[in-house]
Design goal:
Length: about 150
C-alpha cells in the first residue's frame, strides 16, 4: 500500500489579513504592485499618483489603459471606503473610462476622484486622470456598491 501525504494548500498572500484590521483599498497588494500612492484622502476627495513604469507600459512605450483605469478605481474605491458605515465593505460594480491621451514611459500620472453621489447602497465617483503638466489622460466614472 502506497501512502500519499498531501500538504495543506498555502493561503495566498492576498487573503491573509491581520485579525480585526480592515485593509483599505490602497493597502491591498495590487495597488502596491502598481506603485500607487495617495497624497490626499477625504470622504469627498481622493488624490493619487502613479509612475508609468516600464512593466505597466504597452508597445510604443505608453502606459497601458488598464493601469490608468486601475489608478482611477483605486482612488474612487478609497473614497467610497471612507464613506462606509461601520462593518460594511465596498466593491466596484461598474466603470467607464474615456481615454484622451497616453502618458509615455517614465511620466507620473495623477488622479483626482470626487463623489457624484453617496448613498446608503452605492456611491458614484468621477476621476480625472492627468499628467503632471495638467494635460488630461482620462475621465473615469464608476459605481461602488456597499456590501
Amino acid at each position: 500500500m502506497i501512502r500519499v501525504i498531501i500538504p495543506p494548500m498555502p493561503i495566498p498572500a492576498n487573503d491573509v489579513e491581520e485579525p480585526k484590521k480592515k485593509k483599505t483599498p490602497v493597502d491591498q497588494p495590487f495597488p502596491q504592485f502598481l506603485g500607487v500612492t495617495l497624497t490626499e484622502t477625504s470622504p469627498t476627495r481622493v488624490v493619487g499618483r502613479m509612475e508609468a513604469r516600464n512593466e505597466l507600459c504597452r508597445s510604443g512605450e505608453t502606459l497601458h489603459g488598464a493601469a490608468i483605469t486601475a489608478l482611477a478605481d483605486i482612488c474612487a474605491s478609497q473614497g467610497a471606503f471612507l464613506n462606509l458605515p461601520e462593518g460594511a465593505a465596498t466593491t466596484t460594480i461598474e466603470t467607464k473610462t474615456n481615454y484622451i491621451s497616453a502618458p509615455k514611459k517614465g511620466e507620473p500620472i495623477l488622479a483626482e476622484a470626487i463623489p457624484l453621489h453617496i448613498g446608503s447602497r452605492s456611491s458614484v465617483w468621477q476621476t480625472r486622470v492627468t499628467r503632471e503638466d495638467g494635460k488630461l489622460v482620462a475621465m473615469v466614472t464608476q459605481t461602488q456598491m456597499v456590501i
